[in-house]
Specification:
9 strands, tt1808, chain A, alpha/beta, 233 residues, 30% helix, 6 helices
Amino acid sequence: MVLAPGSCDRRALSPSQNAMVSVIPASQVSIALLEERYGLRETTQPDFFGEWTQGLGSLTELEKQYLDRVKTHFKRLLKNPPLLENSVKMVVLSPLLDRAGFYDDPFHIQSEVSIDIAAEDEGQMIRGRIDVLVLKDRFWILVLEAKRSDFDANVAMGQALAYMLATPESEQPTFAMVSNGQSFLFLKLTKTPQPQYANSRLFSLANPGNDLYEVLKVMKRIGKMVTAEPQSD
């Protein structure tokens, strides 16, 4: 597959093609580059990403108590920085995936998923590994990017959007969550008729109360939306 400005097809390149292109690590990709090479645009439509504000359910008291323990465990570990990516996934992301139901049917989890994104006639390719990918059949539901505790979650937006552009499905939206354990940012991307995205507010465990409540509600909302809508072949 070949990318032209305004399109979003992907392919893995053959060894002979790889020799002709320069590789950009996904961790170094900026949103400006994605806008220039792949026609990505940030949408200003207020209803484009309503999933993080609308139709959110409520949590049980047991769920809230569980998330309070997750926050306590994270803050305890944070006293001895840095908290590395694997620790973020173990202490914070894994409990959220469990409570959101993403370990259960019809979803399945893949980790360290390799992706290549090539642009036609640009002589460059973006290459990276998705930390955690939640799928339903072949459809990408949620891309999770974990960072060490001292990493700004906003900085990883370009990397997450690059991964989202690599989804093989062009008709359904793709969602992502970027987290350093303390901060959480959701993204939504659609590919037709032009790649466009929007982001949620930044949720943070530094805020009073426990923002994990809202984070889990959003994750559940995304999961319910996907299972409620029939997917095209």
